[in-house]
Amino acid sequence: MSAQESPSQPVLDVQGVHKRFGGQHVLRGIDLTVRQHEAVVLIGASGSGKSTLLKTVNLLEQIDDGRIVLAGDDITDPRADVDAVRARIGVVFQHYNLFPHMTVLANVVLAMRKVFGAPRAEAERRGLELLARIGLGDKAGEYPDRLSGGQQQRVAIVRAIATNPELLLLDEITSALDPQLVGEVLDLVSELKAAGSTIVMATHEMSFARRVADRIVYLKDGVIIESGTPEQIFDHPQRPETREFLARVSDPFTA
């Protein structure tokens, strides 16, 4: 059994992470451990540090203190190969970031071919299989602007999982969608969770968080205020800040 597969070894271990933007202290000593096949959902108001935390894990933002360990490797070590680290992590952001001049299939297979060197036929076979699985096999030859927002976001998710990443980061992936398209994207995330993906996800969709998460982490002002199972956080929150936040949240998603 490899280090990545060891049940005792976290896939992700965030240790005492601080991040500042000028005089703004955005992350204030974050400690977070995520184990294999676990789905951890980050909740909190805008500006609480959720997106910044995800960006530090993918090395899009450099931390000021602490360290981040991916399957035993300190990826915040200055000697770490940033491109090699990012190749191990699948990321999907609010906006789909599909290449408009490339077909849906070309978008999906790009990393498989350019980063991992998969032969074209092999990459396209896997890409078509994944697109068919999410009901978009007939869109493989289309360009992204011919797809709905929900379809584009599902393609972005498939692109992120095509290389079998060790960790999947999802940052408010439904916030740019019309409400009627949210469900189809969240259904795909539920399928990925059921298939055993290791996921860290920031979302405002509280009922979805309850449904898919193994653990909920509530952030406020760059600090983890409370962490626990969905039942603990939503039904029996311990901290007054958590209770106040949940009381304010409006939930447009119907589970």
Automatic annotation (TrEMBL):
Species lineage: Bacteria, Bacillati, Actinomycetota, Actinomycetes, Micrococcales
Regions crossing the membrane: none
GO CC terms in record: plasma membrane
Protein name: Peptide ABC transporter ATP-binding protein
Membrane topology of the entry: Peripheral membrane protein
Family the entry assigns: Belongs to the ABC transporter superfamily.
Organism superkingdom: Bacteria
Location in the cell: Cell membrane
Domain ABC transporter: 12-246
Pfam families: ABC_tran
Keyword annotations of the record: Amino-acid transport, ATP-binding, Cell membrane, Membrane, Nucleotide-binding, Transport
InterPro entries: AAA+_ATPase (IPR003593), ABC_ATPase_HisP-typ (IPR030679), ABC_transporter-like_ATP-bd (IPR003439), ABC_transporter-like_CS (IPR017871), MetN_ABC_transporter-like (IPR050086), P-loop_NTPase (IPR027417)
A single GO molecular function term of this UniProt record: ABC-type amino acid transporter activity
Organism for this UniProt entry: Leucobacter chromiiresistens
